[in-house]
Specification:
The chain is mostly beta strands. The chain has one domain: TolB, C-terminal domain (Neuraminidase, 6 Propeller), CATH 2.120.10.30. Helix content is 7%, strand content 40%. The chain contains two helices and 22 strands. The protein has helices spanning 3-15, 163-168, and strands spanning 36-39, 47-52, 58-62, 67-71, 78-84, 93-99, 102-107, 112-116, 123-124, 127-129, 139-145, 150-155, 172-179, 184-185, 191-194, 206-209, 216-220, 225-229, 235-240, 249-254, 260-264, 271-275. The protein has a five-stranded mixed sheet, with no helix packed on it. Strands 11, 12, 13, 14 and 15 form a five-stranded antiparallel sheet that branches. Strands 1-22-21-20 form a four-stranded antiparallel sheet, with no helix packed on it. β20 (249-254) and β21 (260-264) form a beta hairpin.
Length: 281
């Protein structure tokens, strides 16, 4: 993407019609008492993210090591794993995203690890993309947006990079965009989420793009809520998540048919839950 094209795309997002992407959040029964669920092995007790590759491979990770696990969505079995580098990096990994078969892991201080999906059992080379975000921003979620060729970084902590921004946006949570074409974090947040409109306590733990609607779902383990944003950031809806079935939802993704998948980071009850969409009107 050329700089001029990037500017034109940004203007389109800021000024264009916001009718793209009908709301889907009302089509998920997040209060369902017995959703389809699968326990995960102990090695994933700190699972922190979910992603679906272009080839339909469901992948996750924990928040301590640069190891990615492929899961069978039918029963939650671990099919295998790939490890980053010759010596597996130990970082606070908090989110995962896929652009076709290129994967990205993000740390809580905003570093992005880029690598290719590979045969299970492999060790893969990686590169690190730096951002000006820090542990004060506390990045918790990562998603790829094919419309803008950007990675979206959902921050649990402070919105803003400078002190002035953090003071101005202290009642908001931010989602930043990292342009893969330009290799940099765009300075203005893609989304600013008013905490009061999100139901009060709302600290993002994950973000996912809906494959059918093109809208964005932002997950908050703290507060047990899920909200939906239009591509321009308009709040389309907020839903509560039943905590008994999802005690600590840290990761979110969608299957190709629109099924919503959550992964829970829990010391004794690590699990994936599945919510197929209800029929539309």
């Amino acid at each position: 993407m050329t700089p001029l094209l990037g500017i034109l795309l940004a203007l389109l997002l800021l000024t264009g019609d916001d009718t793209t992407g009908a709301s889907w959040i009302g089509r998920y029964d997040l209060g369902e008492k017995l959703p389809r669920a699968h326990r995960l092995p102990k090695k994933l007790r700190e699972a922190s993210g979910l992603a679906l590759t272009a080839g339909g491979r469901l992948v996750t990770h924990n928040d301590e090591l640069g190891v990615v696990y492929e899961l069978d969505p039918a029963d939650g079995r671990v099919l295998g794993s790939i490890s980053l580098g010759r010596f597996t990096p130990e970082e606070d990994f908090e989110g995962i995203a896929a652009k076709q078969d290129t994967l990205f892991l993000v740390t809580s201080n905003g570093n992005i690890f880029r690598f290719r999906m590979a045969p299970l059992g492999s060790r893969v080379a990686f590169t690190v993309l730096k951002t000006p975000l820090t542990s004060a921003n506390n990045v918790e979620g990562l998603e790829y947006d094919p419309e803008t060729d950007c990675l979206l970084l959902a921050c649990k902590g402070r919105a803003g990079i400078s002190r002035e921004e953090q003071e101005k946006w202290k009642q908001y949570r931010a989602v930043y965009a990292f342009s893969l074409a330009e290799g940099r974090l765009l300075p203005e947040p893609r989304f600013l989420i008013p905490v009061d409109e999100a139901g009060g306590r709302f600290n993002p733990s994950g973000i996912a793009r809906h494959p059918l609607a093109g809208t964005f779902f932002v997950l908050a383990a703290e507060g047990s809520r899920l909200l939906e944003l239009s591509p321009r950031g308009t709040l389309l809806g907020v839903a509560e998540i039943r905590a008994k079935e999802n005690p600590n939802p840290e990761g979110i993704c969608f299957l190709a048919d629109g099924t919503l998948v959550l992964v829970n980071d829990a010391a004794t009850d690590q699990s994936m839950t599945f919510y197929p969409p209800l029929p539309g009107e």
